[in-house]
Amino acid sequence: MDLTQLQLLTELEPVVASNLDRHLATAKEWHPHDYVPWDEGRNFAALGGVDWDPEQSRLSQVAKVAMITNLLTEDNLPSYHRTISEHFSRDGAWGTWVGRWTAEENRHGIAMRDYLVVTRGVDPVALEQDRMVHMTRGVHAPDDFAGVLDQVIYVTIQELATRISHRATGRVCGDPVADRMLARIAADENLHMIFYRSVAAAAFDIAPDQTMESVTKIIKSFAMPGSGMPNWRRNGVLMVKHGIYDLVQHQDEVLNPTLRSWNVFDRTDFTARGERAREELGEYMDKLRRDVVRFEEQRARLLAREAAKAEGKDPARV
Questions:
Q1: Considering Cα of 165, then 121, then 225, then 153, what sign does the dihedral take?
Q2: What is the mean pLDDT of the chain?
Q3: Interior/surface letters 144-156, b for 16+ CB within 10 angstroms, e for the rest
Q4: Which of 42, 51, 206, 219 is deepest in the core (most CB within 10 A)?
Q5: What is the pTM assigned to this prediction?
Q6: Which structural domain, as residue segments, surrounds residue 297?
């Protein structure tokens, strides 16, 4: 028989409490203003200065797209807070964690926006317009994302994916200040991932079949929380093409290590129900491996054609 949501929350509360203590002992205090080159700032036209012009940006197109996408994703924190607090609890260790996690996540958007505005990396007017659209839409979990297990599994994967995206973005910015800032943000995301991954590991021990079914469902339907933001598809294609976050990373750096951490394919505590969910996940991972091979081949051909075109060669011969 499945545990109810209240039973799961109650059974997992000591695990949340111990991991909250570990997190608070491990996390380092930092301040967004320390990661922004303020001496590069100047007034815009409203205060007698000069408004943004594309020539003012030192960022490549890939870096601009990645920074905007990552920042708008962070901006939707109110939606994430609402969703998580609805499925967790506002009391006890659960409530303390939700508040702490929200406060830490809020620093990310502050630092990234200040950096982009001060360095004039992107158009601040367009950025604000996109923020308004994205936050107005909010983020809504699929109807079948029901309860604490689905949320814990989802954020485990999402936090790790976000960490990877921030680190890759820092590398393509070509600016040591941006790289340092995004490395700091990525370190937060990694600690958040460890917290959620540890809670999920405990859920496997408490309710193995239920947790296995949740893992299979979430992995098969996973989408980053920024989906639906303005220009999501177009920007996503550019980010995938240049390795900010792609199918290879999703398999090799997110899903595989997370599933190994939970010992998913070697557990012996499932009933027939859990075994069915594990078999379904195994079939999905086999398909993903085939998809990754095709993806890498297609991307290599695309990049080769673009390189040939840039050199004045006939792309059709590549």
A1: positive
A2: 92
A3: ebebbbbbbbbbb
A4: 219
A5: 0.92
A6: 5-309
What's the token pair of residue 176?
């040591």
Q: What is the CA radius of gyration of the chain?
A: 21
How far apart CA 153 and CA 197 sit, in angstroms, is 7
Instruction: For 16-48, write each residue's pLDDT tens digit.
Output: 999 999 999 999 999 999 999 999 999 999 999
The amino acid at residue 75 is: D
Q: Check residues 109 and 317 and name the one with the higher pLDDT.
A: 109
The sign of the dihedral angle between the CA atoms of 197, 201, 203, 208 is positive
Binding residues: 74, 105, 108, 159, 189, 192
Q: Pick the closest to residue 116 from 171, 73, 162, 58 (CA basis).
A: 58
Q: Residue 230 sits in a domain of what CATH number? A: 1.10.620.20
The single-letter code of the amino acid at 36 is V
User: Which structure tokens are listed for 184?
Assistant: 């700091």
In a domain, 318, yes or no: no
Q: How far apart are CA 121 and CA 242, in angstroms?
A: 19
Q: Residues annotated in the binding site for Fe cation, as ranges?
A: 74, 105, 108, 159, 189, 192
